[in-house]
Write a structure and sequence with these properties.
8 strands, 73% helix, mainly alpha, two-stranded antiparallel sheet, globular
């Protein structure tokens, strides 16, 4: 393939997908560390403090890899997407700068204090630092999601004389209704990833009979947080996101559901295989009228199919969009079922002895990352063929002077580098899990004077 646009898209998609493995983990863990430290402050016992210290170390590893893998994406705005940056930089540059100057530096500083400052700060001030880290990481997410929301549903912009877009209404841009819904949905998904990892390690230690107190705390926190977050991903945040797509990107909704014909009482496709050439959905299993209700709150509402739109505005890969959406929804449903069963066993005080369920929890940690990736693929493939929906086509945003060969070469370089980084990250996390929560106790535990001073 000698099409530069294909390789520009592939490279950015690859680097963005690999990068987002780490922020979703750290954003989810940031909340769970706050919960653990709060439980310790309220007299929950030393196990909560030990668990918080352990997961803070994992958070630190994830943050480091997130920084390393995120920097190349910033450069790609200039190397691969120069026309896009020139046209929209006056808008998206605002939130990207905010993310870098405020949230990123705040997050970095507070993470250092959280990792190395417990002796001096004492438990109460250290808890405040953990809350600040949570605020910084989620604020960072808000600025990034707001940037993406402008590309999905552009508001608050004005067209300048040179043909570029500038911020016309800062409040409208920052409070884009798409961004408000998308960030809630995104952050709930991040908590699912963090919770599954916490539950997985807790289940692993329980199966091995190691670190019983911290294993119990991790298992309990991960299971309960996983159930709550998984339910919130589906409803109301997922429902709100679906309504937003129906209102502003109806052609994407039609492709997500493999819906080729318009009509009322639209069914929801549970499974099926889209055949774009023949404009049919093969072997479908449908739930009658449910799509009409999800999209418009009315079981008899008319839902547009792909036949209602010109083919040049259809998503460029209907099949991949359809399957990404259904993988996301299918895994999300399984997450609710798994964590619901685990919570039931937890309430019955049988989870620690239900070994088959513990094995499932221990092995389930990769799947939220797959579901979150599928969710972002749904959003990005649904937006195509637009870089900024309705304003700038993807084909018009690429760098015209960067040829396919150069992009292929650098993509191979990224693939090799990221493979090494991925193996290194897994090795370091595996080492921490093997050492256990007390592996660095001599270096991380606060001294008695700090407790006395803070009290």
């Amino acid at each position: 393939m000698d099409d530069p646009l294909f390789w520009h898209r592939l490279q950015f998609g690859f680097t963005a997908t690999f990068h987002y493995i780490f922020p979703q983990l750290t954003m989810g863990l940031a909340l769970l560390v706050v919960v653990m430290k709060l439980a310790a402050l309220r007299g929950g016992g030393a196990a909560w403090d030990d668990a918080a210290r352990f997961w803070t170390r994992i958070l630190g590893l994830g943050f480091a890899l997130g920084v390393v893998t995120g920097i190349p994406m910033e450069f790609q705005f200039g190397t691969n997407w120069a026309a896009f940056s020139r046209t929209t930089g006056g808008v998206i540059g605002q939130t990207l700068a905010m993310e870098g100057l405020f949230a990123f530096f705040l997050e970095s500083t507070l993470l250092g204090l959280l990792l190395f400052g417990e002796r001096r700060l004492g438990p109460r001030r250290h808890f405040v630092v953990a809350c600040g880290l949570l605020l910084g990481s989620w604020l960072s997410a808000y600025f990034i999601v707001t940037t993406n929301a402008f590309m999905q549903h552009p508001v608050g912009h004005a067209l300048a004389a040179d043909g570029s877009y500038q911020v016309g209404d800062l409040a409208a841009f920052l409070l884009n209704p798409w961004a408000l819904v998308q960030v809630l949905h995104n952050q709930c998904g991040a908590v699912v990833s963090g919770a599954f990892c916490v539950a997985s390690v807790g289940a692993f230690w329980t199966l091995r009979g190691e670190h019983a107190d911290v294993a119990r705390v991790s298992l309990r926190t991960g299971v309960i947080a996983g159930l709550v977050a998984s339910m919130l991903v589906a409803f109301p945040t997922g429902h709100w996101q679906g309504r937003m797509v129906a209102a502003h990107q109806p052609v994407a909704l039609a492709a997500m559901e493999g819906r080729f014909e318009s009509g009322p009482r639209a069914p929801l496709a549970v499974i099926g295989q889209p055949d774009v050439a023949n404009r049919t959905l093969d072997n479908p299993v449908r739930l009658p009228a449910l799509l009409s209700w999800i999209a418009y709150g009315d079981f008899s509402a008319d839902v547009a199919g792909l036949d209602a739109f010109a083919e040049d505005v259809w998503p460029t890969n209907v099949e991949l969009l359809y399957y990404a959406f259904h993988v996301m929804v299918g895994l999300g449903t399984l997450f609710i079922a798994l964590m619901g069963l685990a919570t039931l066993q937890l309430l019955r005080r049988r989870l620690a002895t239900t070994r088959p369920l513990l094995w499932v929890l221990a092995l389930a940690f990769p799947f939220p990352f797959i579901a979150n990736t599928a969710g972002w693929m749904t959003a990005e493939f649904g937006r195509q063929p637009w870089l900024v929906y309705g304003l700038l086509r993807t084909a018009d945003g690429a760098s015209p002077t960067v040829h396919a060969g150069a992009t292929v070469f650098t993509t191979l370089g990224f693939a090799g580098l990221y493979f090494v980084l991925g193996v290194l990250f897994l090795a370091l996390v595996g080492r921490e899990v093997a050492l256990g929560p007390h592996g660095h106790a001599a270096h991380s535990a606060p001294d008695a004077s700090a407790h006395a001073e803070d009290a």
